[in-house]
Write a structure and sequence with these properties.
Elements lengths: L1 H22 L6 E6 L6 E6 L4 E6 L3 H7 L1 H4 L5 E4 L2 H4 L7 E5 L14 H7 L3 E5 L18 E5 L7 E3 L2 H9 L1 H8 L11 E5 L6 H10 L5 E3 L13 E3 L21 E7 L11 H8 L2 E5 L4 H4 L6 E2 L6 H12 L1 H10 L6 H9 L9 H10 L2
Parallel strand pairs: 3-4, 3-5, 5-6, 6-7, 7-8, 9-10, 9-12, 10-11, 12-13, 13-14
Antiparallel strand pairs: 1-2
Helix pairs in contact: 11-12
């Protein structure tokens, strides 16, 4: 019992020491000036000489390079894979960027998770989620003092809602940014084929939708799901399969460039949950056929895609059939409709995770939240 008490007391003492260090963490900092917005106002912000970035889960390299660009501008920043051993050396100056859901020191019981990091990582932990995992992300609904979350969860003191589609676009790089943000660079498919469906999670309503839409024309599938629950005959393999692997998802949109429509229904209809699916459809140059949260209409121009309401799909089915029979009407959407709902306002509100996007508005909110 004395041994256990001693271990617990040691951990508590270390947390107290790191909390004290956190209060004085800017004593040895240097200062830079950073432009805020389009005005001539400047603010001075401290930049640490000795920050380290710990990483775990999905690859967030492009995210943390843009989010903490000022750290890298002052010289090399140590990037450390998070393990049970490396966490012992962490301190209050360190930052963990955890791509939530990805591999982290193992899978299953071996995997380092949020409760473990809140106890064993002594810096600031930022969890970045592009997916929905269900339930409350924090134990008993209360976040640890050193932990923050960006993703589908609604805004609060330690959460900022950032749609997964915004993180995905940031990770894809500047070429893809311009394809979404600049109407003159909007991709256009070659329109050789009717529709493609790429999914590996065979959600029943998606399987039913692909079978229903195959009654208009032949649908190509590029994943492991192909409407097999109904044994449809007009659903055939695509000539190219979707890319596999943690990093290969970035190339999936290349598959879409020969299709008039892309069936991209989300796994769930959840507030705050918008993944890369509709983004990849736009990048591929097809018209997305989408289902998910209706917040999508605040992000993307409702006239640039078709919302497939799984509870009432007939309007979407009729719209697709009409566009298939009317080339001019189809081209008016593909060539004439912008991708975003409200241009620069949309970029600033939903995508500004870098100083180069929308004046970095979201980036500043995140930096202010985590106080780094």
């Amino acid at each position: 019992a004395q041994l256990i008490f001693g271990v617990i007391a040691g951990l508590v003492l270390r947390q107290i020491i790191n909390a004290i260090l956190l209060l004085f963490k800017y004593d040895n900092s240097i200062t830079r000036t950073e432009k805020i917005g389009d005005s001539a106002d400047f603010v001075s912000r401290p930049v640490e000489k000795d920050h380290r970035i710990f990483t775990c889960g999905y690859d967030m390299k492009e995210f943390y390079i843009h989010m903490f660009e000022d750290w890298f501008s002052h010289g090399p920043v140590d990037v450390v894979p998070l393990t049970a051993e490396s966490a012992k050396d962490s301190n209050s100056f360190d930052l963990l960027v955890y791509g939530w859901g990805g591999y982290c020191n193992g899978w299953g019981k071996q995997k380092i998770d949020l409760p473990w990091t809140s106890i064993n990582f002594f810096g600031t932990a930022l969890f970045v989620s592009q997916e929905w995992f269900g339930g409350d992300i924090w134990i008993n609904g209360t976040p640890p003092l050193n932990s923050y979350f960006i993703g589908y969860v609604a805004d609060s003191k330690q959460n900022i809602r950032v749609f997964g589609v915004a993180v995905d676009l940031l990770l894809l790089g500047e070429t893809c940014w311009s394809m979404i943000f600049m109407h003159e660079r909007k991709p256009k498919s070659t329109k050789e084929h009717y529709m493609v469906y790429t999914a590996s999670n065979c959600v029943p309503y998606r399987e039913e939708a692909v079978v229903t839409l195959s009654q208009i024309d032949t649908v190509h599938y590029g994943g492991s799901c192909f409407g097999n629950i109904m044994n449809a005959s007009r659903i055939v393999p695509a000539s190219n399969k979707r890319a596999r692997g943690e990093h290969m998802w970035k190339k999936n949109w290349n598959l879409y460039s020969v299709y008039r429509f892309c069936l991209v229904l989300e796994n769930h209809k959840i507030e705050g949950y918008v993944t890369e699916k509709i983004l990849h459809a736009f990048l591929g140059g097809c018209i997305p056929v989408y289902y998910g949260t209706e917040e999508i209409f605040a992000i993307f121009n409702r006239n640039a895609f078709i919302y497939y309401n799984v509870s009432d799909p007939q309007p979407a089915i009729d719209r697709i059939a009409y566009l298939e029979a009317n080339k001019t009407a189809y081209d008016e959407i593909l060539f004439g409709e912008p991708i975003l709902a409200d241009g620069n306002k949309t970029i600033e509100k939903y995508f500004s995770l870098s100083d180069e996007i929308g004046n970095g508005k979201l980036k500043r909110r995140i930096r202010e939240m985590i106080k780094m």
